[in-house]
Amino acid sequence: MPIMDGYTATKTIRSRNIPKFQKIPIVALTASAEMTIQKAAKECGMNDFMCKPFNPVKLYNKIKEYYKQTADVSA
């Protein structure tokens, strides 16, 4: 990303003191499947990650499932 990386963007989103920014699903799209990348994604507040090339349907389903989980908690 030209202005900031995904870790910084996620930390910025999560730092907002607004509940929807704490619950919004964030899934990293990465070229690396290394454990350090997975750990960094979780530590900065991302919900999950997918390796590139990714299947758009799987990404959609993953985000939908996270959204459903947050909607269930909010109800």
Which of globular, elongated, flat, extended, rod-shaped describes the shape? globular
**How many distinct helices?**
4
Radius of gyration: 13 Å
Task: Please name the CATH architecture.
Answer: 3-Layer(aba) Sandwich
> Approximately how much beta-strand content do the residues carry?
5-15%
Structure, explained:
The chain has 75 residues and is mainly alpha-helical. It has a single domain, classed as Rossmann fold (3-Layer(aba) Sandwich). Helix content is 57%, strand content 11%. It contains 4 helices and 2 strands, in the order ααβαβα. The chain has helices at residues 6-15, 19-23, 35-43, 56-74, and strands spanning 27-30, 48-51. The protein has a two-stranded parallel sheet. Strand 1 (27-30), helix 3 (35-43) and strand 2 form a beta-alpha-beta unit.
Give the topology, please.
Layout: H1 6-15, H2 19-23, E1 27-30, H3 35-43, E2 48-51, H4 56-74
Parallel strand pairs: 1-2
Summarize the structure.
By secondary structure, the protein is mainly α.
Which descriptors would you attach to this protein?
75 residues, Rossmann fold, mainly alpha, 57% helix, globular
